[in-house]
Amino acid sequence: MIRAYKFLMRPTQGQAGALAEMLRDHCSLYNAALQERRDAYRHASKTTVRYGQQSAQLKEIRAFDPERQGRWSFSSQQATLRRLDKACAAFFRRVKAGDKPGYPRFRSGKRFDTVEFPKDGDGCRWDASPHDPVTRVRLQGVGHVKAHQHRPVVGKVKTVSVKREGKRWYVVLTAEQEQPEPLAETGSAVGVDMGIANFLADSNGEFVPNPRHGRKGAARLQAAQRALTRCKRGSKRRSKAVETVARLHRKVRRQRLDHAHKTALDLVREHDFIAHEDLKIRNMSKAPAPKPDPEQPGAFLPNGAAAKAGLNRSIADTGWGVFLQILTAKAESAGREVMAVDPRNTSRRCPACGHTAKENRPTQEKFHCQACAHQAHADTVGALNVLRAGLVRRDANPA
Fold first, then answer.
1. H runs (alpha helix) in the chain
2. Which of 129, 130, 203, 209 is a plausible cystine mate for 191, CB 3.0–4.6 Å?
3. 172-218 pLDDT, tens digit each
4. What is the pLDDT of residues 345-393, one digit of tens each?
C-alpha cells in the first residue's frame, strides 16, 4: 500500500528564493506547453499535441534556456508536463460525457504551488540518516534543505513533492509499505448519519458534536479580509495582510483535519463494519436555480438563495468529504470494512415497522412514526437505517 507523509521544511533565505524560482520556472513551462496545445488545436486543423511530443522537446528547451530551465530536474519537468496532460485528458473526458468542460487554465505564480519529483534519487533525495538528528531533503538546483520530520517514514520512498502554502514550504513523500497487520476484531457494526446540527450520529444512539471551526473563526477572517481590501496592491502592507488571511484559512483547515482524523480513528478502532451515506456533496451545495417572473419579463421571483447560501457554508464547514476519505483510508489500513449506501429516505423510514413517509419527521430532530407511533431522534433513526442497508448490501455481495 502507498502512504503519504507531509513534513515542514525549514529552508534558509537563499534556499527559499531558489524554491520560489523553481516554482516560477515550472509554472512557465506549464503555461508554455498549454499555449502550444491551444495554438495547435486552433490553427493546425484541430491537431492535438500529446505528452510524448512535448517531453521530447525538453532537451532543446533546457539547452536554449539553461539559466531558467536547464538548472532543474529533467524528471520534475516531465512530471509538470504529465500534470498538464492529465488536465487536458480530464477536459476531453468531461466534454464527451456532456459535463461542464472546464478547459485547463493558465496558472499565475500564485496558483502554481507544487513541483513533483517522480522518483526518489532522480533530482531529489530524501536523506533521513539514523545517525544524523537533522533530516534533510536534497533538491537539484536548491541544495540540502532541512525538514522537520515529526514521525518516522515507514517503507521505501517512491516520490517526493515540494509544496508551498503561504510562506511555508512542505515536502510530501509517498512511501510503499507492506499491508499492516489488521486490528483485532470487535464483532461490532455501526451505521453513521452525517449532519450539520451534529457532525455525525451513530446507530448506537451516540452523537459527535459539530465543532463548526469555520463559524468560530469567521469574525477574525472577515476582519482580516476587510483589512486586505484597504491595502494598496503591490505594497508590503498588502503582502502582510494576504499572509494573515492565508494563516487564518490554514488554521481552520488544520482544525477540520484534526477533528476528522480523531473521529475516524475512534470509529475504526471500535467497529469492524462501518456503513455511511453515499452523499453527493457537490449536488447538495449547489446554488438554487433562478425563478423568472412570468408576469414581468426580465424580473425574478425569490428562490431562497440567501438561505441556501447559509446552508452551503455550513455543509462546507463540516468537511464531510475529507472525513469520509480519511475514514476509508484508515479502515483499509486497519482491515476494517466501510460501505456507502443510498441515503434516500433513511431518516423517513421507521426502524420498527418500516413505514416510510415524510410526515414521520415533523422536525429536524424528532422522528415520530405515523403508523406505529415509534419515537426517536431522527439522526439515530437515519443511522439505524444506514446500518441495515449496509449489512444487506454486504451480505448480498460477499467478498
1. 13-43, 51-56, 58-64, 74-97, 213-216, 218-229, 236-270, 281-284, 305-318, 320-334, 378-396
2. 203
3. 999 998 888 889 999 999 999 999 999 999 999 999 999 999 999 99
4. 999 999 999 999 999 999 989 999 999 999 999 999 999 999 999 999 9
- Identify which of 176, 175, 171, 174 has the alpha carbon closest to the alpha carbon of residue 138: 171
Residue 132 has pLDDT above 80, yes or no: no
Detail the DSSP E strand segments found in 141-236.
143-148, 156-165, 168-176, 189-194, 198-202, 207-209
pTM, two decimals, is: 0.85
**Cα dihedral: 202, 208, 209, 213 (round 10):** -120
Q: How many residues does the chain have?
A: 399
240-269 b/e (C-beta count within 10 Å ≥ 16 → b): ebbebbeebbeebeebbeebbbebbeebbe
pLDDT in tens, 101-121: 889 999 998 889 999 999 999
Across the chain, what does the average pLDDT equal? 92
Q: Which residue do the cell numbers 524528471 mark?
A: 75
Alpha carbon distance 36, 157 (integer Å): 34
**Residue 297 corresponds to which cell in the numbers above?**
419579463
Neighbours of 205 (CB within 10 A): 12
Contacts 24+ apart (CB under 8 A), 217-221: 217/248, 217/251, 217/252, 220/248, 221/245, 221/248, 221/249, 221/252
At 335, which amino acid appears? G
Is the alpha carbon torsion for 194, 196, 200, 206 positive or negative? Answer: negative
Distances (CA, A) of 280 to 33, 109, 285, 320, 340: 34, 33, 9, 10, 11
Taking the C-alpha atoms of residue 103 and residue 88, their distance in angstroms, rounded to an integer, is: 7
Task: Give the residue from 178, 170, 142, 249 showing the smallest Cα distance to 5.
Answer: 170
The partner residues of 5 in beta bridges, in order of sequence, read 173
Burial class of residue 137 (count of CB atoms within 10 Å of its CB; 0-12, 13-18, 19+)? buried
| For the chain, percent of residues with pLDDT exceeding 90 | 76
Pair type for strands 337-341 and 2-10: unpaired
Stretch 221-246: mean pLDDT: 94
Cα 256 to the center of its chain, rounded Å? 12
CB count, 10 Å around CB of 276?
26
Residue with the three cell numbers 515550472: 26
